[in-house]
Amino acid sequence: MYFLLKKKIYVPVAGWKSYLIRILFANAVLIALLWWFTPDMEIWFEWQAFERLRMLGVLILGAVMSYGLSLWVSGLRY
After folding, report:
1. Which distant-in-sequence residues (6+ apart) come within 8 Å of 29 by Cβ?
2. Which of 8, 52, 54, 63 is the most exposed place for a label (fewest CB within 10 A)?
């Protein structure tokens, strides 16, 4: 990437910096959510398969919703 920028082969257009900041913000929100709500391994192994599947579904749904919402809040629109 450095070579492409140095030789002016790739010139980023305006708006890439704000786009990158929005993506990094959404990733930080996603990491915080998963870090906070993921149970400890001991608890995870004590659960039956259905309980693990239910928690995994809740985590995935929450991750998708928080990522989309944080992108929307930061101003990224489709």
Report:
1. 66, 67, 70
2. 8
**SS3 for 14?**
coil
pTM of the model: 0.79
What number of residues does the chain have? Answer: 78
* pLDDT confidence tier of residue 38, bands split at 50, 70 and 90: very high
Residue type, 60: I
Q: In the chain, what is the greatest distance between 2 CA atoms, to the nearest angstrom?
A: 57
Q: How far apart are CA 31 and CA 37, in angstroms?
A: 10
Surface-to-core class of residue 74, CB atoms within 10 Å of its CB (0-12 exposed, 13-18 middle, 19+ buried)? middle
